[in-house]
């Protein structure tokens, strides 16, 4: 199964000063071959940082900003000039359910929560662990929302999760 992004476009912001609402339209072509592993390897290589995190709480102003706070448990990849902060906020909402990716590793697409709305999985369960593949659009700012429909915010089963092991292996291969 292959999922293609048909369009990503911004709509007028409902509140002055708020970021624009983004909608993502997707099309599923069940007859198309599954995506190759190679783009996922590039995703890992292109990430500015990769961290294993635990969701600890909503951000201080979660009601206004829709943010959750995460604590870094393990730094798998980060730039030498500027490390990812030990605790930081990401755009998202807390939910009471798990959302593990049902696909085999390496994941060819985002978990279920990212297959609607903005094309990014922005739902997190408090206390759960996630592997975040981060971009750094500006110094000091980190975001996992840089590759639509890709597995940049996957919920994991801890340090020994198969997705974490696969990403570690890709990073080790690059170092060789």
Topology:
Elements: E1 2-11, E2 21-29, H1 38-46, E3 49-58, H2 62-65, E4 67-77, E5 87-91, E6 93-95, E7 123-125, E8 129-134, E9 153-156, H3 162-175
Parallel strand pairs: 6-7
Antiparallel strand pairs: 1-2, 3-4, 3-8, 4-5, 8-9
Commentary on this structure:
This protein has 176 residues and is an alpha+beta fold. It has one domain: Beta Barrel (OB fold (Dihydrolipoamide Acetyltransferase, E2P)). The protein is 15% helix and 35% strand. It contains 3 helices and 9 strands. It has helices spanning 38-46, 62-65, 162-175; strands at residues 2-11, 21-29, 49-58, 67-77, 87-91, 93-95, 123-125, 129-134, 153-156. Strands 5-4-3-8-9 form a 5-stranded antiparallel sheet. It has a two-stranded antiparallel sheet with strand order 1-2. The longest helix is centred in the last third of the chain and has 14 residues, at 162-175. It starts with a strand and ends with a helix. The relative contact order is 0.19. Mean pLDDT is 82; it is low at 1-19.
Identify low-pLDDT runs: 1-19
CATH topology: OB fold (Dihydrolipoamide Acetyltransferase, E2P)
- Rg over CA atoms, rounded to whole Å, is 16 Å
Estimated share of beta-strand residues: 25-35%
Number of domains: 1
What strand line-up does the widest sheet have? 5-4-3-8-9
The largest β sheet comes out as: 5 strands, antiparallel
Q: Counting H and I runs of at least 4 residues, what is the number of helices?
A: 3
Backbone structural class: alpha+beta
Per DSSP E runs of 2 or more residues, the count of β-strands stands at 9
Q: What is the molecular shape? A: globular
Distance between the termini: 33 Å
Q: What order do the SSEs take from the amino end to the carboxyl end, as H and E?
A: EEHEHEEEEEEH
CATH-derived architecture: Beta Barrel
Into which percent range does the helicity of residues fall? 10-25%
Q: What is the CATH top level name?
A: Mainly Beta
Write down the overall mean pLDDT: 82
**Quaternary form:** single chain
